[in-house]
Amino acid sequence: HLLILLLMFDDAYAAKAADSNESHLVGLNRSYAEEPTERVHVAELKWHSTSTAFIIVFWLFLACIAKLIFNRASSLTRIFPESSLLIAVGLAIGVLLEKTQVNKSIFTLDSHFFFLYLLPPIIFDAGYFMPNRALFKNWDSILLFSVVGTMFNALAIGFSLYLLSGVITFSHTFNMFEILQFSSLISAVDPVAVIAVFEEIRVNDFIFVNVFGEALFNDGITVVIYELFKQFSCIEEVKAIDFIAGAASFFVVSVGGLVVGILAAFLTAVFTKYSGHALILGPCFILLVPYMGYLAAETLSLSPIIAIAICGMSMKQYIKGNVSASAATSVKYFTKMLSSSSETVIFLFLGLSVVAKSVAIEWDLAFIGFTILLCIVIRTIGVIIQCAFLNRFRGKTFSMVDQFILCYGGLRGTIAFGLASSISSSVPAKDMFLTTTIAVIFFTVFLQGSTIRPLVNYLNVELKKSEEPTMAETVYNKYLDYIISGVEDIAGQKGHASLVHDFERLNNNFLCPILMKDHAKTRDFDATKIIRAYAKHTLRDAMSATKWYPQHKRVVAIQ
Amino acid sequence: LPRSQIGMGNSSSQLPRDDEIETIAHETEFSRSQIVRLHARFVSLDKKGRGFLERDDLKNVPELAVNPLGDRIVDAFFTVGGSYDDGAFASVKRLDFRQFVRVLSFFQPIDRSKKNVHNRRTDKLKFAFIMYDLNKNGYITREEFVVILNSMVGANITSDQLDNITDRTFAEADMAKDGRISFEEFCKAMEKTDIEDKMSIRFLH
């Protein structure tokens, strides 16, 4: 993180410095060569040797201060989500820097930097802590929303805007492929924004996993159609073969990302299994290998987001068996810290970038207005149609309230901004697209983000269960799983429970012995969940019996 | 008439008669096509073609063999299937098609718009409870609990851990502190679980 930031800022700083051709090292030496050696210096100001590092650390420090203030000013955070407050702070700082005429290149968010360094920790963290059970139970709805829903949104918004441009004059003209490029990036629900907002309001797993699952897996389709239309606008004549290639590309990107993710999870599990005695190695592997998977997927133009999310989800149970409890805790803490600081930096820089980009560019209010309107309307239509279709085949149906939250939780975020920045400059409407993207992001994060909490309360949406399940619940839940699996087998219908049971047997017989250490190959099922639950409960009881309970509460909570 | 005498024609490979389908549909709220499909399953389980199922027929289902609670599930089928309308249970040796469908009807998803939602939830829990209550006295004793826990996880944990987990579960669930768990206490322990979702099977049409 820091090293690359250093290099990036170093370029910016060096450009600004009077002697622009000097390298960093020469700059260091210069302080000795230049000063006339008349007197011995007691101490001297070496700003230019520490400046870049200082600037970076200062931003992070500022971000932490901002978060600290927000934690204290609970009246603000009750209304606005933290992400919106951070953007506001970024805006304020941007205006300040703008007024003091600081070089803009220091504080713009480079999309390259964003995708390679800021995004991975957040997605990994989300994947690792994903409620897997709820995800698999809703795989059908998540798949539908992320693939069909996103495509529908992209095409509908694109075509509508194209038709509108014939009626209303926007400040820039665009052809079909250019507007489709724009609509494909603006229709994607953003995982970072969803995490930022939903984590604070803590809705139940069912809704969360549907919104977040969609946000996560739509990366496969968003990037594909964005690239597709980008390439289309370069090709002279678009043929049917190009569409077929596009469709094939979608499968390759998504499934390829999945495969890379699973491979990375597999490798991590194996490496942690054999890293027994060197305690530091385990956590290192856990953090490095998924990131390598992310980069590998990005290199092969597969979906890196899907890769690292799947990696985090798959490796969870094997890791738990391979590293010590304290190592697992430190990994947990570290990923949370990384993802939290990434998130903070992202929103801060979003605010800054707005100031940096927007001063010279005018905002096309009509285009912005119509885009926002279309985003809302078309998403709502899409959700209603898809849920109506799904409800005919599912046991757990989407109620009206569920559907409302699904519509309302379709937040846009920095991924859209990153993609918009990377639109080729040969597109005349690029700046208009960029400022509109910013406007849409602001609208969703500020308006929808701040009103979603009161709405959730007003509609009595079920919140996440905050307590650990009791011992009785853990045992009985497993017990019920087996019952349902058995009844499904008798009735001859392969339902969810029997599939889970089949996987559990496969897992226990083949995968766990390979991927986990000390896994006795016993009968077909695995008791570790019940045992772990029991261990947690006894630990909590023991802790609460001591007089140091308040301090230890946090320790128990982490474990 | 005792339930075992209301049944199909002699050959179970025929489709059930229309009026029988009607009766079953009315009784269990399954649709016609679901009942036909379940009948096909019934026939495939009834390998000897006798028109009823015995315990061994169900135990021969291959996936049940690897289910740690397989025997208990089969047993529960034959207990619930032989139940009378007043809710009393009696274990039967044979299960005809109507009883077979009746047991499965307990696992239908609950339609919240219809009435009797609470009854449905209680019915599902009753099935689970029956499986636990080996001697059918209406209570789960400590020994019965240990037996079930042992079949689920026994090979992987020591008998000390088994006892500890049992102690803890009883400490949580046994409100009356009489060393056994009644049906009400069982329901109370499960009140935070989404039983309607967990214990429902989406039957194909």
From TrEMBL, chain A:
Its main location: membrane. Gene3D superfamilies: 6.10.140.1330. GO terms for molecular function: potassium:proton antiporter activity; sodium:proton antiporter activity. The keyword Transmembrane helix applies. GO terms for biological process: regulation of intracellular pH; sodium ion import across plasma membrane. Pfam families: Na_H_Exchanger. The chain crosses the membrane at residues 52-70, 79-97, 112-130, 142-164, 179-198, 249-271, 302-319, 340-361, 367-389, 401-420, 432-456. It is found in: Membrane. Residues 61-457 form the Cation/H+ exchanger transmembrane domain. It is a multi-pass membrane protein. Keywords: Antiport, Ion transport, Membrane, Sodium, Sodium transport, Transmembrane, Transmembrane helix, Transport. The keyword Iron does not apply. Coiled coil: none annotated. It comes from the Eukaryota. GO terms for cellular component: plasma membrane. InterPro entries: Cation/H_exchanger_CPA1, Cation/H_exchanger_TM, NaH_exchanger. Belongs to the monovalent cation:proton antiporter 1 (CPA1) transporter (TC 2.A.36) family. This is Sodium/hydrogen exchanger.
UniProtKB/TrEMBL annotation, chain B:
InterPro entries: Calcineurin_B_homologous, EF-hand-dom_pair, EF_Hand_1_Ca_BS, EF_hand_dom. Residues 120-155, 161-196 form the EF-hand domain. Keywords: Calcium, Cell membrane, Cytoplasm, Lipoprotein, Membrane, Metal-binding, Myristate, Nucleus, Phosphoprotein, Protein transport, Repeat, Transport. One of its GO terms (biological process) is protein transport. Gene3D superfamilies: EF-hand. Its main location: membrane. One of its GO terms (cellular component) is cytoplasm. It is found in: Cell membrane; Cytoplasm; Nucleus. PROSITE patterns: EF_HAND_1, EF_HAND_2. It comes from the Eukaryota. GO terms for molecular function: calcium ion binding. It holds the Pfam family EF-hand_7. Belongs to the calcineurin regulatory subunit family. CHP subfamily. PANTHER family: EG:114D9.1 PROTEIN-RELATED. This is EF-hand domain-containing protein.
